[in-house]
Every structure is written in structure tokens, then in C-alpha cells.
């Protein structure tokens, strides 16, 4: 997809050379009702997919408007007709915000719900929480958005890292080797969490007819092509990737540790965002990871929506981000 320039009337800045862009004055409510709404949202999708994550400050946006934007964003970016908004396996049925809204809450985290509780038992390193959303599904997320409406005076930042850049840091020989492999992603621990919290696991269709049941496991290529940009990205993450297939367990452990280290130990492939009230972040899960910072005691809460894209694939003729940008010059 090619950017048409419809967002150029808004000032923006890249937060690092590699990842992140912030717009000034761009409101979701306007995007949804503008005369050229489809063109602007399509350009927003291209921008998010190229820059990894986009930040919109001080949004007067309701959860219903977030759902509407996410639906249009993924549709205009070319998602399959069978893909919709994701329903998280741990979402309580009958929520007043709707099945497609996940409430991100420090109060829930204190009770030990979800991924945070699972990871808290395994490591004292904050970097263990790096992940991409719902990669345990056969059809995982393309775009996700989070609005934080309640936050502490300080702390609670979120970091994102570029999967494009991590691919570019592989040697050519390692890149070719990984392009022939798949990895198993699973979130079986959500079954235990659902039982512990007393909430039935959502086993029906979770936004795609391929996403259902209790297995919460999928195989995806280790290197993935983003269909919006045509760029290659590393596609494994600490939160859900358990095993690289086709190699021994020892080899899998070594490879995953190396790939995870490339993400967590390269701060120049990351962007760190300090939230203000009602800020909105929108990112592309196909080629990014993110990590919350749990360095606060006060209440921090927000709403998240995830759309579903395509089943992950690798197009061997696709290019790296660095090569593609060099060819534009």
C-alpha cells in the first residue's frame, strides 16, 4: 500500500529514526466522519505499519468509536473478509463495554489476571513482558489500539520495538535459515487463569472462524511478511512463543534466546512512550513487540481493541525495511 498524503495537513514527528510517530491535533472522531475518511484511515494504516506505532494525544474517543476505527483500519488495509475484532479468551461475557474491548487495569493485575500473573512467576526481569498480541491464535492481530484514561503521576510507560529492525540485524545466512522455520505459539496458561479467576474461557469464535476452542496454540513462520509494507519482520515473542520447530529443543532454546535478546538489548530499536490522560497508541502487531512498565502503585487503566488480519505468511520475494527504504531514495 502507498501513502497518499492525506494526513500531511497535521504536523507530526518521528520519535526515533526507526520506530514511532506522533501526530498533533488529529482526533479519532474527525477521522471517522471526515469527507475523505476512508483515504485518511488508509493512510493512517500505512503510517502505522511503516512506523510501527502511532501516538495520538488527548483523544475524546469512546470505546464504540475505538471499535469503529479499528474495524475500518483493518478493512481498509486489506484484511480478509472473515477477520473481525478479536474477543480475548479471558474477556468476561456480557461486559458493558462489549466483547471486543479488553480493559487494561492495574487493579486486575494486582489480582493476578492474565499474562502479567503468568510472567510474574518466571522472572524478575521487566523485559520478560515483551510480547505481540494474541499470537497464539491461528489468525492473530494486525492492528491494536490502547487508550489510557487513568494513570499515575509518574511511571507506567509503554515500550515498543521494531520487528523490521531486528530482522535487519540478522546476518544474511541466519536470515535465510530462519526463513525456513516455523514456531509454536501458545497461551495454554489462559485455561488455568480462567479457572482460577472463576470466568469461563471464551471458546467460541474469537473474531475469526479459525480462532476458537481451548487449544490456544498456533504455528507461524519465524520470519513474516507484513502485507501492508511488503517488509520482512521477525515474528516470535517472549509472551507466547514456546518452540522453534524443525530443530532440537536445545537449538530452539538458543535461537529463541538470541532473537529475544536482539529485541530486549537493543534500545535503539525501541521507542518509550510516556502517557498523558486519554492518549491513544495504535500499533501493528505483525512487525512489533510492546512491553508495559510496572513501576507504579497508583491506579492505571485503559481500553484496548485488537483487530485480526491474515494468517501469518512469508513471501520470499519481500524485502527488508532497510532495503526498501534505500530503494525509495
From TrEMBL:
GO terms, molecular function: 2-oxoglutarate-dependent dioxygenase activity; metal ion binding
Domain TauD/TfdA-like residue range list: 12-298
Top-level taxon in the UniProt lineage: Eukaryota
GO cellular component: cytoplasm
InterPro entries according to UniProt: AtsK-like (IPR051323), TauD-like_sf (IPR042098), TauD/TfdA-like (IPR003819)
Statement: the UniProt record of this protein carries the keyword Zinc: no
Keywords: Dioxygenase, Iron, Metal-binding, Oxidoreductase
Names of the cofactor(s): Fe(2+)
UniProt similarity note: Belongs to the TfdA dioxygenase family.
Name of the protein in question: TauD/TfdA-like domain-containing protein
Organism name: Cryomyces minteri
Taxonomic classification: Eukaryota, Fungi, Dikarya, Ascomycota, Pezizomycotina
